[in-house]
TrEMBL record:
It catalyses: a hydroperoxide + [protein]-dithiol = [protein]-disulfide + an alcohol + H2O. It comes from Daphnia pulex (Water flea). The active site is at 44 (cysteine sulfenic acid (-soh) intermediate). This is 1-Cys peroxiredoxin. It holds the Pfam family 1-cysPrx_C. The keyword Methyltransferase does not apply.
Length: 220
């Protein structure tokens, strides 16, 4: 199990793009590792179709994509043909890891105990691990096998994690990129003008405490 802030373990794997040594493959980029229960399954097919359609959105954010599914490389390659045809995508630029023995899925806590395959083996859940350029885990999302992921949310949380890595802000409930942010509670009043040239609003509250401070999104 990998906790937030841990360096994500380096591992070797066979993929649809050849042998991968994970840390070397990541280089200086952000990385998104996401798992799937199995090839040729309907929900996974829609998800990989969405990842393929949104490849440029991840590239714009300097995020390298890598999928994991518990079948072999040959099966993955045939599945990619289905995905490209059904979703009408010319390019499928990211690799899919072959984790036939579920070794990586077990190591990284990606198992859904409630969903089993035809032989009674637990399936892989829909994990999403976002890694920073320092290879540390910045965010993890675990969905059960029966619930497909929301891609607006995946892009939204990447925007939040990347923004808050750069500026002394946190993003509020239902934040969308470009809307106001919260100033971190640790920022001193005397530093506000220098850190937030677009201004800070301190909201009046019954408690009299001045912790609710908003500022325009600092990267706009
Ligand atoms: C699917 O991808 O459709 C799926 C896989 C495993 C369990 C349930 C759904």
């Amino acid at each position: 199990m990998v906790n937030l802030g841990d360096v994500f373990p380096d591992f070797e794997a066979e993929t649809t793009q050849g042998h991968v040594q994970f840390h070397e493959w990541l280089g200086d980029s952000w990385g998104l590792l996401f798992s799937h229960p199995a090839d040729f399954t309907p929900v996974c097919t829609t998800e990989l179709g969405r990842f393929a359609q949104l490849q440029e959105k991840f590239e714009e954010r300097n995020v390298k994509l890598i999928a994991l599914s518990c079948d072999g490389v040959e099966s993955h390659l045939k599945w990619i043909e289905d995905i490209r045809a059904h979703f009408k995508v010319d390019k499928f630029t990211f690799p899919i890891i072959a984790d036939e023995k579920r070794e990586l899925a077990i190591q990284f806590g990606m198992i859904d105990p409630d969903e089993k395959d035809a032989t009674g083996m637990p399936l892989t859940c829909r994990a999403v691990f976002l890694l920073g350029p320092d290879k540390r885990l910045k965010l993890s999302l675990l969905y059960p096998a029966t619930t497909g992921r929301n891609f607006d949310e995946i892009l939204r949380v990447i925007d939040s994690v990347q923004l808050t890595a750069k500026y002394k802000v946190a993003t509020p409930a239902d934040w969308k990129h470009g809307t106001y942010c919260m100033v971190l509670p640790t920022v001193k009043d005397e530093d506000l003008a220098e850190l937030f040239p677009a201004g800070v609003e301190q909201h009046t509250l019954p408690s009299g405490k001045g912790y609710l401070r908003t500022t325009p999104c600092p990267d706009q």
